[in-house]
ATP-binding protein
Amino acid sequence: MTIAVDLGTTATGEPAELDLEELLSTRLLVQGNSGSGKSHLLRRLLEQSAEWVQQAIIDPEGDFVSFAERYGHIVVDADRTPAELTRIAGRIRQHRASVVLNLEGLDAEVQMQCAAAFLNGLFDVDHSLWFPMLIAVDEAQLFAPAIAGDVSDDARKVSLAAMTNLMCRGRKRGLAGIVATQRLAKLAKNVAAEASNFLMGRTFLDIDMARAADLLGMDRRQAERFRDLEPGHFVALGPALSRRPVPIRIGTVETAGRTGRPTLLARPEMAPEAMADLIFSSGAEDALPAPPRAARSTPAPMRELLERVSAPRPEPESEDLRSPEDRRALVEDIFAEMLTDPEAAFRPVPILYQDFLVHCRLKRLGGAETDMPAFRRRLSLARAGVSDEDADEEWQGVIQRSEALPEEMQGVYLMLARAARDGEECPDDAALARAYGSHSPSRGRFLLGFMADRGFITAEADFRGNRVVTIAGTSWRASQRGNAPKLPAAMEEARLRRAARLSGQ
């Protein structure tokens, strides 16, 4: 069965249709200067074919995220590691989901690396998953540049290789590339040459008009017509479109991007003095007040552990009339006070245990009945910044998994889990070592490698070389920001060893 995608109308008023099955075998190139309606054309094509074929949209500006609400596309934000994007791409092909890879807000080099990792993940799946799929790449000159620009050679090579694979070898794997570019002269020739269908929009530069005319089989004099095309008008040619160049007008769309054609807007009617006051005077919006600290909620879970720590000592001569909640609050205050000492992280646990008992006696908490294992456990939670308020069901699962680690490592694992759950920055090597009780940052790297090798976490590097830690069994991720140290080679080796072990099981 032939699926005809309605693009709009021809100059004679007849329907302009695209043969979708033919497109899957022959690929498409769209060219048009900024404002020519190139993104509008892509949107029309993708909307009309959404119900017939799986789609993936490489979106550098976030213009196509509106497909999620209207057509059910999954938005994949590219703030992930290369390995994560590759794994996500494999699952996309497995489950035949239509997606939008949102690269908005990333610099050009990171966008190229993200797109390359994602395309390679789509390309390198098992033969059983080679289902038909449209891959639309907007602003393709960014990902397959004809010449080296401001980006590094490594980023350019990996991105160009992925785009070349898509256009040259993607057909056998069910991948049909649709590349859209503002200028043909900026797009790598080996990417543009693999397309058999063309939609050429308005362009003004002689070199671009000449290349467009050559691709459509038009002479140099006919190339001048590209200057006269109106926005939304294109010349179509190719086995999926027409056997001869045909002018078409693109129809309307149902979704809208974040950007569009600029329109004139009247300036506000305001006296110059009032406008100057708005510009030069600081207002309330310049310094937002800090949000009020949340009031302490009534502690509920983790009762068994806290009751072991704060259980009253039987004293026949006196009775402790404080409520269990007050006793738990006092215990937390004791731990907080102990950990304010900078040297507390490096003192032996038995010494800290004795200090804790002294504090309990001073506050008449009956802490002498607290045994050493319960104290070690509670100390690990305190060092990780975890209290009974945090112990929801998912936290309980993480705490339960931490029991498989040596006692002295449990606090480090819970510290990582806390940072990952709250979306905070991943603790650096020194912080991990301090939580372990060591002054050496190399001990922090060892702990990460140890936990990654045993499957408690995955430790990877993002496109900037910053560490990204994911807690196994959850979606919690913590990443280092700024000029953070790169992932140590030992940790990467541990991750590879674990992957090899799992693949052999």
User: Anything to note?
Assistant: The radius of gyration is 31 Å. The first strand starts at residue 4 and ends at 10. The chain has 18 helices and 14 strands.
